[in-house]
């Protein structure tokens, strides 16, 4: 380990600022496109950051999604690290590997490869420095060979901390001692065990014992810790005891002490988990209210662990990254402003200015001189006030987007290269009578249920059914139980009783007849059928399609329908193909789709289907022997047995069965599966590129940073920090194959094909998520369609290399999240940019765009949702995109008002550098 990290020392921020300004000038003398380090004004943003960080504790980088905020953060981080400082990255769950390997690793490599004259002289100091990853509480306790393993920040400049990191969750009597025993064991050790009954019987690992010993011997904090421990209610070992506010604070302080101090905090997606962002207010809350405020684990980690009382981190600089610091209303600014270290009076001043501007935008109804003058004044105040703490680059200023505007004549728009397509609307009048009645009755049920205590499914019946969510299980036997409301058992008021009677009437109307099939089979729900038709239409010319949904049941139904239909087209055309994972020849849904009017399988073809599927699958498999050999070699290399392990004992060879199954999975993951003549093997690519792709896919399954909600099982699974050692690879393979078994895809020796459509949702394992992300970015690999759950896939993921078609299957209530979803494909180096550059060369047909599609059920709750989102989007776009009012609203105002409004500039773009002017 580099000796520069062996002792803590004060870091000189003047040196950091100087090195940052040196990086700004790396491209100063660069001509043309000769490997620039910075793109589209990033160097100007860095210069602004350097100026502001000299004067204030933190700054907000609010560049639009996809314009490279991460690189700006990394530039500052490497300057801090090169000066001997430590950096804590607070990163959303599931994105640590992307930040560390894909972003930081790539940036350091690029800096080292710069030619003389541009290469920073200090970059060699960062060659061999390690990082610390804290995803869950147990990551604190990794056995160290050194006598002093703590604080963790002593060992590396980079600390990657998940937004979810903090106190162990679900502490109680049934939890393992390892999760909550630290404060009890420490008190027992420091007070000789006399005041903590049961402390010596705690089952705590050797690594945690090492942490306890270090804390007990920490001289400059020993008296403070003794005082805190003596005051704490830790007289008897019980897990629930640490849930009191006082003991929780003690526990957090111990965690923070083990982590150590840092000099810079970088908060990615700083708009998330705003509860508790205002640390100053917490002292005024009751214990009950305080617990509510601290439901944001990121706020608790930032305020109570990193910025704990007496910590050196209190003096750290802060950098917040978010494309949407406010999303639905102007009051949301305050949470992000607190996170960059501004004091309470300044946050309140800035928030009040933002609210006055927002009110002026909403109040511009007729365009009177008084309304316009109020708007001009508040807009000027807003821009001046926030320019001191925020920088924001917009897509409209990007060179490619400017060229698009010039070439197409589309101007006066923040996103001229995006095309919001008309909603794919399903009108009630076009539906079969049974479906039409079901949707109408669900709307009536929602109205009848409004205002009384009843199940949420009843209150949102119209929205649920129109969005593809059945009110009851598709198993008819469950219907009777699911249709009853607990409120029916209570004694209601006369008004509530009347509502219950109306509710019961519509419930009875919706209840399926005795002996009938399911209420609404989801794959044939009108919304899902419309989405299937749209997605197949978009993907027909080889384009990949990214889909966002909110509810898992309809997302799974959509995914299943797409895969079945894609497979049946191959079978109908007698094209060699393998059965996709997750499907079987005897599948009831498969049989029903065969009778769909598009496929129209005859009775004879249905009877012969199993034999046909086997014949086509065998034919498909035989054509991929070369790829199978390549994958077999990659698996052997990945699981190669070393001569001896570190204890001098020979390790066991991987089980042959696991190798076969892993090889099958790798082959099916790499097959392109497209409908052109390249489907034979992974084909025209050089073999070396194919080998690298295989290695990358295998390494991806070792990722353990899950985006799912943390439960007991997830905690245990994530407890092992998997590095790419032989034993850890074996464990990763076992875990991955178990996941395939759970999905019904793990049968040994059965050759499958990677599905046409795949999903990313909360329970998708980390390695699988990484594999699917990588494969979606490969233009010739499956999946062709990726369906992401909005809560998991809207932020942080790079899905832009092969996709420019977006389908918002469930339209989110939050316009900021919609911007984040579009930003998954609208990024630097995107598929759209490549297509546009090609178009500039020949200008045949229309210029390519990024297309955003939505699905809606007409005359339903969907229309209200759209209206609400449009109103919220007005506020967001006026404050973040400089679009004061939508064009359709502007056109209704007097000409003089339009002229005056068009002169207002809401722009936080950093000033150009002297050599750029």
Structural write-up:
This protein is α/β, with parallel strands linked by helices. Among the domains are: 15-29 and 36-168 and 248-343, Rossmann fold (3-Layer(aba) Sandwich), CATH 3.40.50; 174-237, no CATH class; 429-466 and 472-518, no CATH class. It contains 38 helices and 14 strands. The strands form two sheets. Strands 3-4-2-5-6-1-7 form a seven-stranded parallel sheet, with helices on both faces. Strands 8, 9, 10, 11, 12, 13 and 14 form a seven-stranded parallel sheet that branches. The chain is globular and about 85 Å long. The protein starts with 12 loop residues before the first helix and ends in a 15-residue tail after the last helix. Mean pLDDT is 82; it is low at 1-9, 280-294, 476-488, 643-651, 673-685 and 708-724.
